[in-house]
Amino acid sequence: MNDNRHNPIARMVESLQLKWQETTSQCPDYKLIRWLVQREEVDIVNGFYRLESSPYGSLPEFFLVLFTPFEKSEEAFSRRLISDWTEMWKQDKFVEQSGIEWSPEKWLKKSENSSQPERILIEMLIDFQSNVCKKKQTLVFGLIPRSIGDLELFNYWIIQIVEKLPPEVKLSLIDHKGKNYLKESFKYFKDKALTIECPDMGLNKAIRQMATSGDQNSPEINFRKCVFEMADGVTGKNETHIHEWGKKALKIAQATGIKSFLASAYLIYAGFLMQLKKEESDELLDTGIRIGEAAMKNEEQDALGVLLQLYGYKAAYQSIKGKTSQSCQWLLKQARLAVESKQGVYAVSICRMAARTAKKAGEYEYYNESLKLGYHAGDELSNEELRISEIKILAYYYAEELRNDKKTAAASDIYRRMQEIFGKSWDEDIPSFSEKYGQSVPDVKESIEMLNIK
Q: Above 60 in pLDDT, residue 32?
């Protein structure tokens, strides 16, 4: 066993491995299992799954993990799982090196022409367990959807799948403490469904300790201290504390002479104030944008990521204030910068957000512009990149607008292109832009991770 005494994250993953063994050994004939976690613990559990699904896992089971989102169709979800599994298998270097001859391609072809893709998925899992896993080795099929569009349907899908799985195949999921999103499916299977409560691992304390250790004269270390202090201010709703440490962060960044670093300081300071809906964040964002644009002209290495985030935060602030038109303008500005910088997948995601925001507010000029810009942002992307993007949604509604404008040939071209990439049933799980939607305050954690402030 590796010596992980000085690696708190590794020790946490080891504690999850022990917890898993302890729980499953008490009921080896379980059919369904979930981790019950706090929001901040999800990354550690993901780390557990990633380790165990790699050649370096230590548990006796074979772990297969997918992050496929669940929209609003059980059939579409099963079909997408098969597609994502196939793509992951083709790109796995370990598979190539190991000489495993099993191929998912035949199951992908079957699913494209089947009206019961969930049956194909079950057959695929059974075939995998029989031909890839060791003799009598349990296959744990881990699902961590990036998003769930309908919890009731998702629970129903879980029940339908798990009922048909053989004893050698288990389904594993993540649920949230205090929310219990999967209670219906776990209630249904009673004693055949196991719940593992994630132990208190002191995650936040460990991350803070690692992030602020090292050279105490380093501007990066001292800046991280300011970030954690501002986060404490948000938790305690202490605006004075946020301002105190936000100003310290600005001084530290300014002293480095690096414009992109200073722009990021304004971004994070403003972001924490936005969590408390404070108007001072708007002026901080404007200053950060001016500095970020200057950093872009100087071609500073981190300027692009910072400026994209600043535009996104500005859009969110305008949305919070009910200024939908201005919010759309900033989102489109963010998307254009992403396109110019060859960040096509990111541009597609931003345009989807802009289109939904505009549609909800009746801003049809921005709605149409978002659809067009987002769809054509995919022109320079490979099919593999498009499959992990949100291009389908934009393509569907862009084609709809083209048909309304009597441009049927252009709409047909879009349908043909999407079918080539996603298959004939590409449009069956498209969510509606009329769903309840509003732009929330961005998570400051996302900006911190993007700037490598950990």
A: yes
Give the pLDDT score at 447.
40
Domain end call among 185, 203, 221: 203
- Which CATH number is 170's domain given? 3.40.50
Domain that holds residue 385: 302-450
End-to-end CA, the chain: 28
**Total number of domains constituting the chain:** 2
Distance, in Å, from the CA atom of 326 to the CA atom of 363, rounded to the nearest integer, reads 11
E strand or H helix at 172: strand 169-176
- Percent of the chain as helix, strand, coil, to the nearest 5: 65, 5, 30
In a domain, residue 158? The reply is yes
**Token pair for residue 382?**
């490979």
| Of 243 and 88, the one with more pLDDT | 243
Share of the chain above pLDDT 90, in %: 53
214: left (phi over 0), alpha (psi -120 to 50) or beta: left
- Between CA 265 and CA 251 the distance in angstroms is 9
| Residue 306 and residue 187 share a domain | no
Would you call 63 helix, strand, or coil by DSSP? Answer: strand
